[in-house]
Specification:
About 20% of the residues lie in helices and about 45% in strands. The protein has 2 helices and 5 strands; from the N terminus they run βββββαα. It has helices at about 65-70, 75-85, and strands at about 5-15, 20, 25-35, 40-50, 50-60. It has a 5-stranded antiparallel beta sheet, with helices on one face.
């Protein structure tokens, strides 16, 4: 079993702008860092009515253009937050 160094969560509103608290409509971006192979993974959830629904996962080995293509139906601000998180 791989050890996880850190877990973090960022929230955005439904337009993709970061918020400090969990919104009732928006997105949650969970980040996991696995130090054994230096992988940073992001799991994206849509929040609707304070319930989270899993959308997609990406990691820092994924091609940036493929991430942008897969997220083209989502707000641009959210895409930017995900790309910045994976840096």
């Amino acid at each position: 079993m791989e050890s996880i160094l850190a877990r973090n969560v960022k929230y955005t509103d439904e337009n993709g702008f970061e918020t400090k608290e969990k919104p009732c409509k928006g997105f949650a971006i969970y980040t996991t860092i696995i130090p054994t192979n230096s992988i940073k993974e992001v799991s994206l959830f849509k929040i609707d009515g304070c319930k989270e629904q899993y959308l997609k996962s990406f990691d820092n080995t994924d091609d940036k253009m493929s991430i942008v293509t897969e997220m083209e139906h989502l707000p641009q601000g959210l895409v930017n937050v995900v790309l910045q998180t994976l840096k």
